[in-house]
Every structure is written in C-alpha cells, then in structure tokens.
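Module 6 notes. Inverse folding takes a fixed backbone as the condition and produces residue identities as the prediction. Think of it as a translation problem where the source language is geometry and the target language is the twenty amino acids. Below is one complete input and output pair. Work through it position by position during the lab.
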C-alpha cells in the first residue's frame, strides 16, 4: 500500500502494475487480505514507520503537492484495488468470495 500511495502521488498515470499487484493479492487472499488493509492514512503510516529509519508520513506529505486529504486518497486507492480484485475473481469464477471481499 505504501508503494501504491507513493506511486499515485508521483506518477499517477503509471499505476497499472501497482493496481494489478494489489488486485492479485486481494483476489488470491480474499476477505482476510481485505481485513488487513489500513483503514486510514495514520494506520498505514504506523505500519510502514515500524521499520527503523522509514519516514513515510514525511515523504507522503512532501509528495502531496495537490494537497489531497490522505485518508480519502488512500480509501480511493483501496476501492480501485478491490474493484480490480472483484474483476479477477469474476474471471476465474470464484463468486463465493465476492460479497466478502466487497463488504469488508
């Protein structure tokens, strides 16, 4: 998620691979993965900055030239990833996972 946020802030027109990776992870791991996604930017920051020397919030703030609300921005990125996962699941025919993946 941190890589997707940084990519979206720096090269928003070149996120296909990042979204594909998120969608594949969500489709593969299903509802359990959806539950693990951060609910807000502070949670993502806390997880990423648990690594010594990482200053994710500072970096994201510097890169946020448009001044997005980072909580809303993260939610939009996650929603796009979930929709991509839904499409992957539909293609492979595992429709039982769809309500759980969408509803978490």
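Target side of the pair, the amino acids:
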């Amino acid at each position: 998620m941190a890589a997707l946020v940084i990519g979206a802030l720096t090269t928003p027109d070149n996120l296909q691979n990042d979204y594909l990776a998120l969608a594949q992870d969500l489709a593969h791991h299903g509802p359990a993965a959806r539950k693990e996604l951060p609910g807000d930017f502070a949670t993502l920051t806390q997880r990423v900055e648990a690594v010594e020397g990482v200053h994710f919030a500072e970096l994201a703030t510097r890169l946020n030239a448009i001044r997005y609300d980072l909580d809303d921005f993260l939610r939009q990125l996650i929603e796009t990833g979930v929709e991509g996962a839904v499409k992957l699941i539909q293609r492979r025919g595992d429709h039982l996972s769809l309500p759980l993946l969408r509803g978490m």
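Reference fact for the lab report: The chain has one domain: 2-6+16-103.
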